[in-house]
UniProtKB/TrEMBL annotation:
This is ATPase. Residues 5-178 form the ArsA/GET3 Anion-transporting ATPase-like domain. Pfam families: ArsA_ATPase. It comes from Streptomyces tardus. It comes from the Bacteria.
Length: 331
């Protein structure tokens, strides 16, 4: 069973929302999950309608299963201080580094260092134990960089281990990669049932596999066909755009109490905009069916999240978590 769940996806697919719902869904009774944000956007705080997250693990929610959800907004500077203290016992070095601007300088000229610190902190949380010997967190969910950068982000410690042949840096990099490339880790890809996100997901799966990184599930977000039951499966909007079909539809609206059916009446005026929506909906259903077949060809476990028409607020987040629990949370 995986304990580090890395959630990635093309920009605009809602990966932060899916990662948050994932953390809630895993928070069963007696379990504790940690939701980690690495891109500094404070998206988790916005979703959970709380104040900005500091660089500390803070409880932000109780899952629908009764467990606890903690969150951590990663800070490369603070992660470097932790690193220095953990491996070199240089806790006071942080104040000096801050004064001389060494952290900003280092992460600018060596951007890979930032990824080393962030992945290292997440893996430390995965392995951390309480005094009684139990894992501090049952699962760690990382809201990771987009698909186009995820393989480099997760594999950076392999490069570091190759550069630093001996010493604590080498040992730490190897320890991180042992976690990331083990069955403890699963990389889940968020997509929409649209051409470009599905193609980027396919490319991402290939890159992850070539790098020897563990691919988990495909998480399909904002699916509109969950609401397709509003229209009969054989409904054809084109039959109602003119003539007797249009008249019959206007009469049906009038019968439902939506105004008069005469030409130019309220019910008649509703026909055109509602048919337009129906046409868009049926076209979307057809497109989703094509893309769903492509996703099925990946041969991976797939979960779907319905589109929330009112947008994603805290209640909507719990709704998505429940939907994931109904389908079976990826383990």
């Amino acid at each position: 069973m995986s304990r580090l769940h890395v959630v990635t996806g093309k920009g605009g697919t809602g990966k932060t929302t899916v990662a948050a719902a994932f953390a809630l869904a895993l928070a069963e009774e007696g379990r504790r999950t940690l939701l980690v944000e690495v891109e500094g956007r404070q998206g988790i705080a916005q979703l959970f309608e709380t104040e900005q997250l500091p660089y500390e693990e803070r409880r932000i929610a109780v899952g629908p299963g009764g467990g606890e959800v903690y969150a951590l907004a990663m800070d490369p500077e603070q992660a470097l201080y932790d690193y220095l203290q953990m491996f070199y016992k240089l806790g006071s070095a942080g104040r000096v580094l801050r004064r001389v601007g060494a952290v900003d300088f280092a992460t600018t000229i060596a951007p890979g260092l930032r990824d080393v610190l962030l992945t290292g902190k997440a893996c430390e949380a995965v392995r951390r134990r309480t005094r009684s010997g139990e894992f501090r967190y049952d699962a760690v969910i990382m809201d990771a960089p987009p698909t186009g950068r995820i393989t480099r982000f997760l594999g950076v410690n392999d490069e570091v281990a190759g550069l630093a042949r001996v010493g604590p840096v080498h040992n730490q990099a190897q320890a991180v990669m042992r976690v990331i490339k083990s069955p403890e880790t699963a990389v889940h890809l968020v997509t929409l049932l649209e051409e470009m996100p599905v193609q980027e997901t396919a490319d991402g799966i290939g890159e992850l596999r070539r790098a020897g990184l563990p691919v988990g599930s495909v998480l399909v977000n904002m699916v509109s066909t969950a609401r397709s039951g509003l229209l009969p499966p054989d409904f054809d909007p084109a039959r109602y755009t003119a003539g007797a079909g249009r008249t019959a539809l206007a009469k049906a609206f009038a019968t439902a109490g939506l105004g008069g059916a005469r030409r130019g009446g309220k019910a008649d005026r509703l026909v055109e905009p509602l048919l337009r929506e129906a046409l868009e909906h049926t076209a979307r259903v057809a497109t989703e069916a094509e893309r769903r077949a492509e996703v099925a060809d990946f041969g991976l476990d797939t979960k779907e999240f319905e589109m929330l028409t009112e947008g994603v607020d805290l209640a909507g987040l719990y709704t998505l978590a429940e939907r994931l629990r109904e389908q079976g949370v990826p383990r």
